Amino acid sequence: MIPFLILLVAAGLTAPTAAVATAPPPIQLVSPPAGIRAFDTPNDAGKSITIQWTPGKEGKTETWLVERTGPEGPKVVSTNAAGDIGYLDEEVKDRVHYTYRIAAVAGADTVWSNPTPAVSSSPQLFNTARLNILIAMVIFFVLVVYYIETAKKGKNLFVRRIAGLDAVEEAVGRATEMGKPIIYVPGLGSVADIATIASLNILGEVAKKVAQYDSALLVPNRDPIVYTVAREMVKESYAKAGRPDAFKPDSVFFVTGEQFAFAAAVDGLMVREKPATNFFLGMFWAESLILAETGASTGAIQIAGTDQVFQLPFFITACDYTLIGEELYAASAYLSREPLLLGSLKAQDYGKLLILIVVVLGSILLLLSKTPAFSVFSHIAGFFSIN
Amino acid sequence: MKRNIPLAICLGMGILMMVQFFVPHPISVGFYDLTTKWVRIVSAFAVVLGVGSFVMYHSEKLRRRRAGWLYSIVALVAAAVSTVVGLAWGVKQTGPLQSYIFTPLLVPLNSSMFAILAFYMASAAYRAFRARTRESALLLVAAFVVMIGMVPIGAHVPFFWFLVVMAVALLVAGFVTRSKALLIGTGALVVGLLVWPAFWKFKVPRLMLPDTAEWVLSVPNMAAKRAITFGVALGGIATALKVILGIERGWLGGGKQ
């Protein structure tokens, strides 16, 4: 009886085992992704982990699954398309360890990779991708300070002629002779724009000349803060010129914050007042041509300037003189001839020379880096790219 | 004192904002967000000054019956109505300010002003294309290349034959207007046309007008734009530095030290 039972049990146990051994192994259509890297996203404010991988050698993956395992357990955090082999996980907590694994999905087949080593995110104190900007800024600051100090010592600094700024005196004089006002538009930008600050500095110099020549000045404004600063600047310029009594508080006024309503109001002002001179200096957008063409139709001398590259052609076409880009920033130094301000102009010129050298060197290095022997140059050239 | 305190604030905040640009830490980001909010709050206060100036300016114009004083009535009434409606019913998307003032009045008026730009462009283009100097003659040719290169018919025009037509047109215009600049421009074009077949012999691909237009935009035009951008960036940094260091202090306005 016992040998029979043993045989029976043996048969019962061995029969299914034999069946399993003969079943075909599952066919994997794809191989798991390789080279999975999970790391703290560099140069950020934390709470972010970057995951990158490369497709496996076999099969055609349809989608990728990204699984994160943290204190709350495993969770699929992203489903990526076949060509998308990276993921930025921004739902993590700083200084908490996570592991990731990636699955390649093809049809009903899902093949998971091994989990990555534990990784955690943390905020950085310095953005290393901006190191090149920091170096450039330090060099430029040193140049500015050096030339300002040189100017302080009384060294004569040559500044090239800028026709648009030389014409300011003539334009103000013309207004006096004609008995007509001067309209000065300090752009449509806010006081946070450097072009507006540059324009306000020029306004100070123009207002001084207007006060000396006893002409009338009208300054319409779009931004309330710009209006407040412009009013103070004009008032101070009149005082500096020894004519505080000639300042009219309503000569500097706020019009409206609406772009085209402002353009319509200034157009109306030009048509009614028929000014002798118009200044359009600062930030301008689509209204630049509307203002400049209306001004040209009234027969006024027009001096314009902006750092907006797309508006420059309109001003060049419709105005008598145009300050192109950096000339706008140079204007206050040029008009006041203050050595301290002229020093910074000189630094700008040397800054441009440095940029020119970097552009030429960078171009040569990039060309050389295309040959395998000099491929290291691509890293040097890459240092100059801005992030 | 009235000047020194703002200068000290400017210096401190300027340095902090520069440092902030290089520090991605949440404290730095939070500081940036905070200052942005401050700017908005200060702007809100400045609006009061702006409205005060607006009312004063138009009231004075109305009182003195200066030219265009009727428009001042429109401006003051529009401002008053908008303020009353805004205060009474709010500035919601479905409120009367949006439904009866902004959408049916302000939007079409803005669009009309923007539409006028097309006519101004035509008159500005006319002025720019009057080939009075060598530079403007060059501008004229470049502008025509880009304009015709960008329209569908341009795809069928070989650049060489376009230049031939331009040379003939400039020559005729030069003789009619007796413009020296135009004749010099024509001469340059003719030299170019004579040199061209020499390149053709060496199997230079036939250039069509859109290719040339693309080249004009992406090479000489882009180079000029980048040069201006470099200058603007340096000028901006220099101006900012002058303001931060207190060298440029006109923005402080009047007042005693």
How would you characterize the overall build of this protein?
The complex is a heterodimer of chains A (387) and B (257). Chain A has 387 residues and is α/β, with parallel strands linked by helices. Among the domains of chain A are: 34-112, Immunoglobulins (Immunoglobulin-like, Sandwich); 157-337, Rossmann fold, CATH 3.40.50.1220. In chain A, 46% of the residues lie in helices and 19% in strands. In chain A, the strands form three sheets. In chain A, strands 10-9-8-11-12-13 form a six-stranded parallel beta sheet, sandwiched between helices. In chain A, strands 4-3-6-7 form a four-stranded antiparallel beta sheet, with no helix packed on it. Chain A is elongated. Chain B has 257 residues and is mostly helical. Chain B folds into two domains: 4-121, no CATH class; 129-241, no CATH class. In chain B, 80% of the residues lie in helices and 0% in strands. Chain B contains eight helices and no strands. Chain B has helices at 4-22, 26-63, 69-89, 96-128, 134-150, 159-177, 180-201, 209-244. In chain B, α1 packs across α8 and α2 crosses α3 (69-89). The longest helix of chain B is centred in the first third of the chain and has 38 residues, at 26-63. Chains A and B meet through α2, α4, α5, α6 and α7 of A and α1, α2, α4 and α8 of B.
The geometry of chain B reads as extended
Strand order of the largest sheet of chain A: 10-9-8-11-12-13
Mean pLDDT metric of chain B: 87
* Straight-line distance between termini of chain B: 6 Å
Return residue spans of chain A where pLDDT drops below 50 for at least 5 consecutive residues: 1-21
User: Could you tell me the strand content of chain B as a percent range?
Assistant: under 5%
Number of helices of chain A: 11
Determine and state the CATH class of the domain at 157-337 in chain A: Alpha Beta
CATH architecture of the domain at 157-337 in chain A: 3-Layer(aba) Sandwich
Shape of chain A: elongated
Overall average residue pLDDT of chain A: 89
Question: Largest interface, counted with CB-CB under 8 A?
Answer: A-B, 85 and 64 residues
Count of folded domains of chain B: 2
Under CATH, the topology of the domain at 157-337 in chain A can be stated as Rossmann fold
So what's the oligomer here?
Answer: heterodimer
Distance between the termini of chain A: 85 Å
Helix content of chain A: 40-55%
Number of distinct beta strands of chain A:
13
Order of helices and strands of chain B: HHHHHHHH
Strand fraction of chain A: 15-25%
The CATH homologous superfamily name of the domain at 157-337 in chain A equals TPP-binding domain
